[in-house]
Amino acid sequence: MKEKDFYNVAVYLRLSRDDESDGGAESNSIRSQRDMIRSFIRKQDDMEIYDIYVDDGWSGANFDRPSFQRMMEDIEAGHVDCVIVKDLSRFGRDYIEAGRLIQKTFPAFSVRFIALNDNFDSLTADFNEKTLVLPVKNFVNDAYCSDISKKVRSHQQVKREKGDFIGAFAVYGYRKDPENINRLLVDEYAAGIVKKIFAWKIAGLSNLAIAEKLDGMGILSPMEYKKSQGEKFSTGFVTHVKAKWSAVAVKRILTNELYTGMMVQGKNEKVSHKVKRSVEKPKEEWVRVPDTHEAVVSAEDFKTVQRLLAVDTRASAGKAGCHMFMGFLFCGDCGEPMIRRVNRYKGTEKVYFICPTRNKGLGCTRHSIPEEELKHLVLAGLQQQLALFLDKSHVLTQIETMEVQFDEVAAFDQEIRKLHQEQEKYVSLRSGLYEDLKQGIITEEDFRDFRQIYEKQYQAAEDAIRQQEEAIKDLFKAGVSAGANLEKMKSTLEITELTRDILVTFVSRILVYENKRVFLELRAGDMFAKVLMLADFIESKGNAPVMEQERKEIS
Fold first, then answer.
1. Which of these, 261, 246, 328, 262, lies nearest to 295 by C-alpha position?
2. Please, where are the H alpha helices in 106-234?
3. d(CA 406, CA 83)
């Protein structure tokens, strides 16, 4: 490279969060870098600062930094012919890319490169400095960046597992605690909007209809709301148009478990410290910590919405919401969601539901049932089951005055008895394996395989027993009213017309069979069954039969 009479200098400064966390913020501060380079230039008769390019808060692992890119544009335009940095680490920590720029790109544009602390000047550097010393130093910087990246990720993982919020921006509906940026506080205004979104979804509105409703009410989208609150929020898309609500934005809110008070983080991870692209991690690897912040929606409502989102709830053309039974109605034989058909003849309209499998010519049967008849059957069956539950639940008030041993109640539970019988079966089968092995009926390999299978089945039954016992314990602890809305049950018994709100509150699925046979699966079916069992236990002290109510046929 030939020496020039005069150089237009680009002063490049960079400070990352990694530098700050590593304790080098003061020595590597933007001010420190600027002062050092300016002091050097003042001593040079052939240099003048063209511009100062600052990337504050940007990692050196990649070169997609805004000010760095602006500097490269000025180099390509011929405005800059010298780049000065405090040291090579400020320039970048990717040794391959840094080497390519310093050894190939800059010489191609006749750009002189100076790293002050490394005593490197491309104008005076000899062959060894360019081909040996420089690559080694860049490699060391790269290794340092990799090490720091690992430390940062490890530190972040610890914070996630503690339930600390480590995102750059609070989720819509929350704000960061000014006294603790790792804690979320409810934003009352935005949280109110979130509650409306969940309520509208439960009521049957489509995601698009909810988005249009919000825009019609003049409610700012999450992005615009953040901007209105003074947050420096941006996306990769440059636009001068105010962002509106979208079906995607609505779904993003509806599927975020954080609104239940559950901190969910670590959903994605970067490919490496050199690559910005992130990949989604399996759900089982997500970090979930309960009760880290105030809930905006109940866990029950959240589960309901996820169930509704799992089925096709697209509205018909020209309608804002789906029909009442969308997400609830299934063929009892093939399990497919029933489809709605409308027959119009001479000004009259008849609505009915049929099995889609039969409709496609893939087997099953039609399972046809008129909508009005279905409404009547479902409401009557629901009222029947709720009336039974309410009647039995009154008996449970006696349990507080009774001396009841939990083990005695558990032994009375029919489901637990069945599971114990199942365990005994697996113990017997496992014991018989030894005799079969002795007699040569099975090989040693078969013996090991079957024993493993029976042990797994035994453990599965053991886990199921534990779950059943916990369900009973919960009723003892919290009472019936804590797990069921008794007041709403009472009001339902007085209602003469079925609504989607009632379905969402009490019903999990509706199964339709041939000949208009309909079965209801209640949302709290397990709890209902346990309540009835406890009531029978109190009344009979073990003599009355247990009633199974998880699935009730209605007619």
1. 261
2. 106-108, 127-128, 134-162, 188-203, 207-216, 222-228
3. 79
Please state the φ and ψ torsions of residue 180, each to the nearest 5 degrees.
-155, 100
Return the amino acid letter for 79: H
- Using CA atoms, how far apart are residues 14 and 28, in angstroms rounded to an integer? 8
Same domain flag for 152 and 178: no
Give me the long-range contacts of 511-514 (CB less than 8 A, separation at least 24).
Answer: 511/330, 511/331, 511/332, 511/551, 512/329, 512/330, 512/331, 512/332, 512/338, 512/353, 512/355, 512/367, 512/369, 512/374, 513/332, 513/333, 513/367, 514/333, 514/365, 514/366, 514/367
User: Rounded CA gap, 61 and 181, in Å?
Assistant: 26
In eight-state DSSP terms, residue 77 is: T
Number of domains in the chain: 3
What are the structure tokens assigned to 39, written together?
Answer: 């002091």
User: Does residue 357 fall inside a structural domain?
Assistant: no
Q: Are 254 and 313 in contact (CB under 8 A)?
A: no
Q: Which residues touch 445 (CB under 8 Å, ≥6 apart)?
A: none
Within this chain, do residues 59 and 185 fall inside the same structural domain, yes or no? no
Measured CA to CA, the distance from residue 30 to residue 225 in angstroms comes to 32
- Of 160, 183, 205, which residue is a domain's last? 160
Q: Which amino acid is at 510?
A: I
Q: Distance between CA atoms of 538 and 532, rounded to whole angstroms?
A: 10
Place of tokens 């003061």: 26
Q: How many CB atoms lie within 10 A of CB 458?
A: 18
What is the reported pLDDT for 150? 57
Q: Which residues of the chain have pLDDT under 50?
A: 21-24, 234-240, 271-275, 312, 316-318, 401, 478, 480-483, 542-552, 555
Residue numbers of the domain that contains 45: 7-160
Residue 14 DSSP one-character state: E
pLDDT at 470: 73
The dihedrals phi and psi of 75, each to the nearest 5 degrees, come to -65, -45
What distance in Å separates the CA atoms of residue 490 and residue 383, rounded to the nearest whole number? 9
Give the DSSP letter of residue 266.
-
Whether 511 and 369 have beta carbons less than 8 Å apart is answered as no
pLDDT of residue 256: 92
Task: Based on the fold, state whether residues 521 and 392 are members of the same structural domain.
Answer: yes
Query: CB 46: neighbour CB atoms within 10 A?
Result: 12
Distances 151 to 44, 93, 140 between C-alpha atoms, Å:
41, 16, 17
Contact predicate 62/21, CB 8 Å: no
Look up the pTM and report it: 0.49
